[in-house]
User: Which sequence fits this backbone?
């Protein structure tokens, strides 16, 4: 995250005059796209969809209680 913020900050730092909120969103989006070129993939990234689906599967099977109140 820190790397992303720094790269976007470097990219957005080129703007000297902000005209609107839409301009900010466009430049930050462009900065994120530019920064994403230097990202590396994490080992096992192909398993992320399976990892996200696991709690849903457990709830369907009744193995995970979603009704418990936590303090």
Assistant:
């Amino acid at each position: 995250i820190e790397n992303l913020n720094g790269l976007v900050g470097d990219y957005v730092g080129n703007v000297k005059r902000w005209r609107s909120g839409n301009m900010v969103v466009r430049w930050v989006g462009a900065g994120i796209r530019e920064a994403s070129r230097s990202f590396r993939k994490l080992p096992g990234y192909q398993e992320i969809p399976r990892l996200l689906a696991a709690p849903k599967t457990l709830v369907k099977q009744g193995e995970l209680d979603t009704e418990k109140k936590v303090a």
